[in-house]
Amino acid sequence: MRTLLKRLYPFLPVPLQNAGISAFGYVYRRERFGRDFAPTLAGFEERDRWDATRMREYTDRKLRHVLRRAMDAPFYREHWSAAGLGPRHVDEVTTETLARLPPLKKEALRRSPYAFVPDRGPAVRGLLSYFSSGSTGTPIRALCTRSGQQRFAAAREARSYRWAGTSILRPRAMIGGQPVVPTASSDPPYYRYNAAERQVYFSAYHIAPGHLTDYVAGFNRYRPESVTGYAFSQFVVARLMLEQDLRFEFTPAAAITSSEKLTDRMRRVIQEVWGCRAYEEYGSVENCGLVTECEAGRLHANPDFGVIEIVDADGYPVEPGVEGRVLCTGLLNDAQFLVRYEIGDTGVWSREPCPCGREHLPVVEGITGRVEDVVVGIDGRELVRFHGIFIGLPYVLEGQVIQEALDRFTVRVITDDGFGGTQEATIRQRFKERLGLVDVQVERVGELERTSRGKLRAVISRLPRPGTAGAGPTS
Asked: Could you tell me the pTM of the whole model?
């Protein structure tokens, strides 16, 4: 049924598209807000008031359970045994001695996602499957149970939404990369409505000066209490509203941003135009770490969601103020166990405590995720996160988008054997769906351009950067 609806969706009139999205929303609501949601939420809210000692003892207990269960998964059984690690060694590990275990590279998860699911002990049933954005290569397949999904949602409700003075259960807006508006040349409206969750979903691919009045009309029609989604897309909507002297007819309670760094300029513009504060959230589709912003404006790691380490090149903890690689060990997922997972980002612990008083939730000075420029369309639309460009293309190991001109792109790909004309045609079609008629050249290469720190530049723009167009996530 889901597959059939997805195939029919682009050809349906808008009211039926809204109905289809609402049907999906009903299913997702049951997955996320079932019986484990309320007790998990209560637990996170209670631990919000704990001291550091009590939280450390709690996370150590949860960590031991996770490590024991991880040994029932094929990957750890093989690799930890080869490293001479057995149950006795695992039982001795705490949050402070996690460095005794080897880091987990993302490529291992990419190639064998089911190897991290236990195949002995209590059976894992009812797996749900989610994919990363697929914008830099073969996407990650994240697996969880329905109960796990409810625990993830409860944690975000407690430490992200409620810290921001709102709720995921209240009417909300999302600006994201799902193709709710089927093609780049689609007529307005550039949003669809999920009645089951009271969520209005705005396309991140159609934000252009000439389309802005439709975006504002959508906000005014549904009056969401919170605005969530891509940080840069929220900023562009607010910035264009400022330039065109447009305002909402209501005031949201909060904006909660994700996917890119929320810069000071983004915060100022969103607050000035929307009249609400912007809160930053850091997470991932793997759901093994969560960093959220408190009322004092500082970022906190949530160790009862997942243990976050910031480590040096050898995998050992760095001092506060020193940048290092981010490793995450998830504590809520009872299906796919990720231990010391190298998520691909870098971070810095803060040297200063937070005035909010939550000394048991470590303060993060900052986290740097993907490095990318902004893509600009012929009609002035500004895009980040080319969601889904490489999804379903298993022979693409890594990819990089280079904008040479408004209507001309080069896509560089590192591939396995099996990549060919069909996959190239799929990439070109996906560009057409997002940007309209543009020229796309696909090049197979041996390596991709990276920053001086070794991070892949997912999108590189060769366009001149006048005025505001270059003020994207990497600025």
From this structure: 0.88
